[in-house]
Design brief:
Layout: H1 8-11, E1 24-30, H2 33-44, E2 52-56, H3 63-74, E3 88-91, E4 99-104, H4 112-115, H5 120-123, E5 127-132, E6 145-152, E7 162-169, H6 176-180
Parallel strand pairs: 2-5, 2-6, 4-5
Antiparallel strand pairs: 1-7, 3-4, 6-7
Helix pairs in contact: 2-3
Length: 181
């Protein structure tokens, strides 16, 4: 019997900042950490400087594993690990592409005001900025953003399956389905 899906990703409905302009949604099933990294590598092919990616999912859902795949796909320097205690890590490109700025906003209670010290608005134009736990905190950085909601079975289970919902918000993401096909 499948455990219930009670993660924050499942509870997150529309984008918290007003109406969702031109949203494109697609849901994928991922059955292993390797597939989650593969998804990250696939997403990296469609990312460009200035992209904001917001990751939502409970602890252990696979946010950092996905980001590790993004880093591999973008060809950045350094091991992509959870930035929980340092809040943000910058991984420069090794292939003349955009840097990866990986942020963990879990311990940050405020919205964008508290995030200002990280200078994400300065980094965003030339980087790909990935923010774990960013809902309600970083939406103001960009009208166009990619929300990645990762839902997993909870409770006493070793089920590796994840439902990953990609929500492309804004004109930038209009061709998301085709780009990932």
């Amino acid at each position: 019997m499948e455990a219930p899906h009670n993660s924050p990703a499942a509870e997150t409905a529309p984008d918290p900042v007003g109406a969702v302009p031109e949203a494109v949604t697609m849901t994928l099933t991922v059955t292993s950490p390797e597939q989650m990294q593969d998804l990250g590598r696939s997403l990296a092919r469609v990312l460009a400087p200035g992209d904001l990616v917001m990751l939502t999912g409970e602890l252990g859902a696979g946010k950092t594993t996905l980001t590790r795949g993004l880093g591999e796909g973008l060809g950045v320097r350094g091991a992509v690990t959870s930035p929980t205690f340092v809040i943000a890590r910058v991984h420069p490109s090794l292939v003349q592409g955009p840097a990866l700025v990986h942020v963990d906003a879990y311990r940050l209670g405020g919205g964008l005001d508290e995030m200002e010290d990280l200078d994400l608005d300065v980094s965003l134009p030339e980087s790909v900025v990935v923010v774990e736990w960013g809902d309600g905190k970083v939406e103001e950085l960009s009208e166009d953003r990619l929300r990645v909601l990762i839902d997993r079975a909870t409770g006493d289970t070793d089920d590796e399956r994840r439902e990953v919902t990609l929500v492309g918000i804004g004109a930038r993401w209009a061709g998301l389905r085709e780009a990932l096909a």
